[in-house]
Amino acid sequence: MSSLPMIVRVKQKRIAELISSGMRLDGRGLTDYREVKLEVGLIERAEGSARMRLGKTEVMVGTKIEVGQPFPDVPNEGVLTVNAELVPLASPSFEPGPPDENSIELARIVDRGIRESKAIELEKLCIEPGKKVFVVFIDIYVLNHDGNLIDASAMAALAALLNTKMFNYEVESGEIKVKPGYTPLPIRNFPIAVTFAKINDKLVVDPWLEEEQVMETRLTITMDKDGKICAMQKGGHGYFTLQQVLEAVKIAREKTEELRKLVVKG
Amino acid sequence: MPKRKPEKSIDENDVRIDGRKLNELRPVKIEVGVLGNADGSAYIEQGKNKILAAVYGPKEVHPRHLALPDRALLRCRYHMAPFSVEERKSPAPSRREVELSKVIREALEPSVFVEYYPQTSVDIFIEVLQADGGTRCAGITVASLALADAGIPMRDLVVACAAGKAEGRLLVDLTDLEDKGGEADVPLALMPNLNAITLLQMDGGLTIDEFEKVVNLAIDGCRSLYSIQKETLKSKYIAVKEAVEE
């Protein structure tokens, strides 16, 4: 990302050198995450919400549920829509305007994790087959960019989904009638994303901003609650060897379990 | 016209609906230097996929402020023709196309010596004329040839191939039908001489063991495509040489 503010070459070199010897500038080990802080239900107007802090990276996710039309190929299923906004208040490198390729990629990686793990029981969100279903909107709002937006957004999205409540309703001659009370959105899987950066031919998890500026390339692995891989995405203009990919998968298995405990309580 | 979906796309002898074995690629036809105006171009047919790629550059960057002081700016546009799929696709770039343009660019960039051409841009255009699954992979394979055809110095050709899982079986080079009905899809791009994976995506569900097998299937697919890719490039120059000698 050439548009990011430059960090001094000396510091870049230091970050890379330290990683070669198994250390990181902020004192973490190569497979350590930054501190995770999660709050849910902060936005009363949203059906569900979560604010995730990963070190200094901060992401807010809100969910909204509306009535809409199903896709013609899956007439009995609700619709999932994920959108990400890299709002200008989050970083000097973000500019106002329509979503650029980075925010589209971010939204699509989070979308794939939730969709492919079948986290939401979409078949329970059908009101009238082929005509009316519930549409779940997940809106990712980046508030402070200090690296690894993907993992923070994926965790925040999952937390927001778990926090989402739907109004009770009845269908009376094709019309939806709202009834008192709420039920939680039906969720059956808990996908967690783990992102690796390759720096000096070594893999580190959860890169912070300055590491992202040094990294050659990036790999995100999303796993579901059974340890199955459900989504993957390589990014950046470098490459991985097969050994590195398989090593990353092994580390991701442990890390996803560790992180899932922080997002899914009880 | 919508076709009726067959119940099974792989029979009990592991033969796929188009007659292929699980580890068999679709028939591939590649041509290099097919367009007049572009600095480099190539065309691929892989099964029913028909894809054109063109490269312009290295040339002056427009708009100028995008120019990089230490290397060439590589840009890529992956685009599908409105008539390339069953239902007309709007010609405006979709979110999928924006993402694919990004990952394709990042798959090709490790192969190009961008540092040789500071302050310039190299623009890659991929037009999918007909799509039948695996267009990003075929797009990478053909775009890499177009780069080579434009005479841009490269570390290796980039070749891409997908593998995945459908009806419980692991298979290579999925068609649209196998991808949509299948359990997982893993597109992968490789620089075969450097053993470097430059594109890796996945969606679906695979255990770690299955994933390792699928990745190896995709790598084997890449290697067989690579020999076709190389021969095609060579044959263009042999043809020129013969023409000169006559």
Write a compact overview of the structure shown.
The complex is a heterodimer of chains A (266) and B (246). Chain A is an alpha+beta fold.
Structure description:
The complex is a heterodimer of chains A (266) and B (246). Helices cover 26% and strands 35% of the residues of chain A. Chain A is of the alpha+beta class and 266 residues long. Chain A has one domain (9-263): Ribosomal Protein S5, domain 2. In chain A, strand 1 and strand 2 (48-54) form a beta hairpin. The radius of gyration of chain A is 20 Å and the shape is elongated. Chain A starts with 8 loop residues before the first helix and ends with a helix. The mean pLDDT of chain A is 94. Chain B is α+β, with helices and mostly antiparallel strands. Chain B has one domain: GHMP Kinase, N-terminal domain (Ribosomal Protein S5, domain 2). Chain B is 30% helix and 30% strand. Chain B contains four helices and nine strands, in the order E-E-E-E-H-E-H-E-E-H-E-E-H. The mean pLDDT of chain B is 95. Classes of the chains: A alpha+beta (266), B alpha+beta (246). Chain A binds chain B through residues 2, 99, 101, 104-105, 107-108, 112, 115-117, 217, 219, 224, 227-242, 245-246, 249-250, 253, and chain B through 68, 95-96, 98-99, 101-103, 105-106, 109-110, 186, 191, 194-208, 211-212, 215-216, 219.
